[in-house]
Design goal:
mainly alpha, Fic-like fold, Arc Repressor Mutant, subunit A, two-stranded antiparallel sheet, 15 helices, elongated
Length: about 325
């Protein structure tokens, strides 16, 4: 192996790897017992939201979910296109190979389709890493990119470093090289997730990007520190901390306990419905009984939500399924 990226494996990094491995083992056992990771769809939306938000996309998780469901969203066309591209990219996630350079080019083509002219091709000009209006890193000249990327993929294919460390090192080196005209941040985060998912499938739907977005300034600071030290250990440490924190807050979601009455209400839900329409659909006459045995428990359980939560008594109030409610119905249909 000719090329090795400069990084130091510190005691803190080793402790983080041990901690993550322990949590991964526990979560894997729990998800096997539960049958599946019920939060998969929610986490994918959170992942896409977090990764795109870092790049300035303003769409909410609710809007991304609506696009996923094929609904029309009123938002800047470019931002909608970014979400559609990200959703399309994750459809191919399981087919890509971490150490395959042609796969990263194909992933970039899908992720940046309709957004830049050089989608799926290494950049032909100079670029820099921006933190707001500030340039924090000037990438190597475009003429060096093919060689640098070839060396990086050769190292990834041959390294025996733990995948948790290798994935973070790759992520840092990818951002340092900045191989594309645009989309480098989201591609680096996507490829780190891919490397980790090949180590353990649990990572295919871990919303690490969402936590990175919450600590965006620390993300850029870790990149800068690593560049200043010519050693990616600060960035590796930061990413491992984000991974451990994400794993510590995500648990397998089992099907919630739902009363027969709430189950009937969920089954009757069609898009957005008023109380009167819902009560009529269930053939119920007693408003108080409907509210106390059907509507309120469904709201308290997070299975449905108000369209006007700030005005609970509004005559225009309607109700709709939440992601949790849709997941419950999907689980029921699969049983």
């Amino acid at each position: 192996m000719k090329y090795r990226p400069p990084f130091t494996i510190t005691p803190q990094i080793l402790n983080l790897v041990a901690g993550i491995s322990e949590v991964v083992g526990r979560l894997t056992a729990l998800t096997q017992q539960a049958g599946a990771l019920r939060l998969r769809r929610i986490n994918r939306v959170r992942t896409i939201h977090g990764s795109l938000a870092i790049e300035g996309n303003t769409l909410s998780e609710a809007q991304i979910t609506a696009i996923l469901d094929g609904q029309r969203v009123i938002a800047p066309p470019r931002e909608v296109q970014e979400v559609k591209n990200a959703l399309a990219a994750y459809d191919f996630f399981g087919t890509w190979r971490p150490a395959c350079e042609t796969d990263v080019l194909e992933a970039h083509r899908i992720l940046m389709s309709g957004l830049i002219d050089e989608a799926g091709r290494y950049r032909s000009g100079g670029v820099g890493v921006m933190a707001g209006q500030r340039v924090v890193h000037m990438a190597p000249p475009a003429g060096r990119v093919p060689q640098l990327m070839g060396d990086l993929f050769s190292w990834l294919a041959a390294t025996d470093v733990h995948p948790l460390i290798a994935a973070s090192v790759f992520h840092y080196e990818f951002e340092f090289i900045h191989p594309f005209a645009d989309g480098n941040g989201r591609m680096g985060r996507l490829w780190q997730s891919l490397i980790l998912a090949h180590w353990n499938p649990l990572f295919a739907d871990m919303p690490v990007e969402s936590l990175v977005f919450d600590h965006q300034q620390n993300y850029y600071q870790a990149l800068q520190e690593s560049s200043g030290q010519a050693d990616s250990a600060p960035f590796v440490t930061f990413m491992l901390q984000m991974i451990l924190e994400t794993l510590s807050t995500v648990t397998p979601q089992v099907t919630p306990q739902v009363t027969p009455q709430v189950g009937e209400l969920l089954a009757a839900m069609r898009a957005e419905m008023s109380r009167e329409v819902l009560q009529s659909a269930l053939g119920l006459r007693d408003r108080k009984s409907f509210r106390e045995r059907y509507l309120r428990p469904a709201l308290d359980g997070g299975l449905i939500e108000m369209t006007l939560p700030a005005k609970p008594s509004s005559r225009l109030q309607k109700y709709r399924l939440t992601e949790k409610g849709r997941q419950f119905l999907a689980d029921q249909a699969n049983e």
